[in-house]
Design a protein that fits this description.
SH3 type barrels; 2 domains
């Protein structure tokens, strides 16, 4: 009885799922290709793929609500309420969102790679370090004295940075 009643909605749902799954596969393939061509760490590629999947799931839920008869007015009220609560909650942690957004920007357009030695031109804390890892929220930088420094992604995009030496991590490992 359920399948007979909602036959057209279920058909449309199947089409939406197939289309969004195809978009997911294509976008993941593109991200992997960009990542491999740019010599980006596999963990960062996986992270961007997860962001894409989460976005497509939200889009799928929105489309499914329309398919099963939700009115635009109802959805607008629901999503505005959800985004208001999320917005208030995230206002307190805006720096986390800033770092995630910076991490995404760095995935597609960051001239430095893991292993490069960089110099960060900060008035208060200038430093020279080797990029050990690039994560969703921060860079792991190995200072010359051996200390590990976590540097927020949003700051690395705000400060002038100079490439001192490419693939300097091999030299550092050999000296340790």
């Amino acid at each position: 009885m359920f399948f007979e009643t909602y036959q057209s909605e279920l058909t449309y749902s199947a089409i939406v799922i197939v289309v969004l799954f195809a978009i997911r596969l294509i976008s993941h393939a593109l991200v992997r290709k960009i990542g491999k061509n740019s010599s980006i760490n596999e963990a960062r590629i996986q992270l961007i793929c997860r962001y894409i999947t989460a976005t497509l799931v939200i889009i799928a839920l929105f489309i499914e609500a329309f398919i099963f008869g939700a009115e635009l007015k109802e959805l607008t009220l629901l999503f505005s309420s959800i985004f208001a609560v999320i917005g208030i909650g995230l206002f307190a942690v805006w720096s986390i969102l800033s770092n995630i957004t910076s991490g995404i920007i760095m995935f597609f357009n960051f001239p430095y790679k893991v292993g490069d030695k960089i110099q960060i031109h900060d008035k208060e804390f200038p430093m020279e370090a080797i990029i050990e890892d690039i994560r969703a929220f921060q860079l792991h930088l190995r200072l010359e004295n051996g200390d590990l420094l976590t540097y927020p992604n949003n700051l690395i995009l705000q400060k002038p940075v100079t490439l001192v030496e490419k693939d300097a991590i091999d030299e550092y490992i050999n000296n340790v």
